[in-house]
Structures are given as C-alpha cells and as structure tokens.
Description:
The chain contains 13 helices and no strands. It is mainly α. It has one domain: MetI-like fold. The longest helix is centred in the first third of the chain and has 37 residues, at 16-52.
Amino acid sequence: MANALSTVEQPPVSPRPRRRDWRSMRLLAPAMLLLLIFFLLPVLSLLLRSVLDPTPGLQNYAQLLGSTTYLRVFGNTFLVATVVTVVTLVIGFPVAWLLAIAPKRVSSVLFAILLLSMWTNLLARTFAWMVLLQQTGPINRILMALGIIHEPLALVNNLIGVTVGMTYIMLPFLVMPLHATLRSIDPSTLRAAAICGAGRWQAFWRILVPLAMPGIASGALMVFVMALGYFVTPALLGGPSYMMLAELVAQLVQELLNWGLAGAAAFVLLAVTLTLYAVQLRYTGGARTAMGGR
C-alpha cells in the first residue's frame, strides 16, 4: 500500500518545459542574429584592424597611450563627460522631483516639453546654442544691457559651450529614469522622517537620495557613457582645444586614413564603456533587484 501511494505521489517528470525553453530560444534567434551581424562582427573587425593595420602588433595602442596629444584628447573626453554628468544631475534631480510631485496635468505638460526638446533635431539644437552663446548673441547682449558685464564673454569654443550644449541634450536621459524611481518612493516615508524630527536637508540626504540612488546611478551612467562618445555638439561648440575621442576617431579615418589607430581608439572607448556598465550592474543591479522583490 505504501509503495502504491509513493508511486502516485511522485508522477514522472514531463519533458514539456524543456521543449518550451527551446521554443523560447528559437524566438530569440532573429534578435541574436541581428546582434551578431550589426554589433559583434563590426566590433571584431575593429579589434582586428587595431592589431593588424598596418602591421601585426600592439603598436597602435602604444602610440595611442604613449602620445601626449592623444592622452590630452582622452583627458578632454573624460573631463567633459564628468562635468556634463555632474551639471546634468544637479539640474535634472529637481526637475525629476518636480515631475514626480506636481499635479497630473502640470506634470504631463512639463513632460511633453521635455520630450519635445528631445525629439527636436540634434543639429538644429546645437546650431541654436551656437547663436545664443556667441559674442554677439542674445545672452551676451542681455548681460551687457543689464550692466552685469562690460564686454562679451567667450561662451563658445571652450568648456562652457560644450557643457551648456551637452547638458541641454542629455537632460531627458537623466530625468526619465530618475523620475520613474522618484515616483515609486512612498511620500509617507518623508512625512515620517519629518514627524521624527528630521529637517529638510536631513530628509533629503538620508532618505530621498538613498532611495533614489538606483535612478541616479542609471541616469548618470547613461549620460556619462553617451557623453564619452558624443561627436556633433563638442565639434561645433568645443573647437579644436577641446577635441574629444569621437572627433579624434573621425579625423583619423576621414583625413589621415589611419584605420588601425582609429580602431584602437574606438576599442579603448568601447572597453571603458563596457567596464562602466559592468560596475553599474555590480553596485546598483543588486539594489534594484532587492527593491523589486519587496
């Protein structure tokens, strides 16, 4: 009798789940094929060019990392990306918080304005900032008319111009993930902190910022990585004194026809990007998973 019950309680394992898994994998085949053709193969070709052109070896990487000119370009790239990320975060956090706490109608209008700026042509936005920031532009004229300055300020072809133009372009990419994180925070948490005697800054730094850290990290990483590889805005607003890595790659390919050195520069940029993404997953992915599991 016991043997009969044990036989009934332990039905044979059906192979259907495995078949379903294989069917799911077959559904992923088109996406994996596109990824292979349009990403992995070009990256592999880029890597091969960097070590085979003009002769096999690592001379392209040695030249890239051993030249003060190229190292200055790397320094400009990381400097601009860091400054743009910090400024975008300082401006974007209040904007995201306003969108999260504002009434639905006001939030919808503000969000539409944000998306409209994002959908506007990139080249048109950059040229608009060139007109606004030049020495005879409206900004300098207004400042001189108000008596704040006595001669036009140099706002283009320098770090200021690049920061202003790129911050305006990158702002939606920080606000959207941060806004989603702030919306998920229970307002009663901040009210409880106020009831317990916490001041506004204490509630901000000890409650709001830690809870919003996943959105801050993902948005800041997105802005920083995009800023590392940006081309149009730094080329038009930065000038030759603030050349970035993307401009260097374009110059090496289009003017100097040095595909090996350009491949090495592009592959270094890709390696830095993937490293930053791995760090972000390591330190914020687990926190996001934990929050989602609660």
